[in-house]
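**Entry details**
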Amino acid sequence: MSDYIELLKDTYGGYFEGLSFNITVIGLIGILFLGASIFFLIKVSYEKAMYKRNMMKYLIKKGKKSPVREITKLLMKNKFLRSILSKIAIKIGMVSRYNYSKNLEIATELLLGAVVLSLMIMFSVLPAGNLLWYELLIYIAIAVIVIVVAGYLFFATLRTMFIGKLPDVYKILDSRYISKGNILKAIDVSLDDFDRVIRKEMMKIYNVLKKNDMQEIELAFKEMELTYNTEYLTILLSLIKQAHFKGGNDVIKQQFETITEEILQEIENQRDLSSTSRSYIMMALFIPLVLKFIAKFNETSIGADAADFYLSPAGKWVGLGTILMTLGYIGLLLFLERSV
């Protein structure tokens, strides 16, 4: 050790000539300890400063009032609007990973956007000239109905896509459950095989089953049933719940296999019917806008006579009657789809 110290003195001694101490083992240890202490103090001070900064940002963000949140609270005080927002929030769960409270805020944004869009549609299909108050109310109702139907079609399409993938889920879980004898293991090894439309919901099922809390499982399954509102998902959730709590019971395996075979053809038939009816509904939604273009074309081609006709009561009711009959046709298609 002394030879090592002498080597350090010979090498670096020139740097310490003006100092009043000699380098010793204790001195080296002291220098290292002091350096480590300074480094540790700086590190702790930096981490503490960053923690305070992050906490302040969090508190500012938490304390900051969101306009959408405040509007949502205001709308939720009304029973009718609360019912609408709740239904929209449940449907938003098809595409959102947020919780119910956040989905309510998104529902508020969608509702406000729908009001603005309704006004735009109303002004785009309004005939020229003055309208009586009840005629204006009818056009407002038409604009609202068009937006509601468009929203229904959007979520119904998502629902149809989900239901359309259920046969594959039944097939995969049926084979995996028979081989594994455990529904959790069957879901776990099958997650990568599910379509992305299904995978999000199966992850929810897997996570809640792992908790093994009957109340949480019931709540999560109930939310999924309300979101998609299809008996095929209800049957699937019931089978999964039985398989989870009753284990690899042969009776459960047989039920799983039998019900899988029974509903596969039903889902395929319903999917074909839904896709056909919605294609007609989508075409029908453009009729009010087409009428506006037809009126403009007639005014350009025929001239003043066409303009006078569309300004007359008969001309106004021709357009209005066509729109009302179109909405009736859409309503019939929707009724037939839901009743099958």
About this structure: The chain has a mean pLDDT of 75. The first helix runs from residue 2 to 12. DSSP finds 14 helices and no strands in the chain. The radius of gyration is 34 Å.
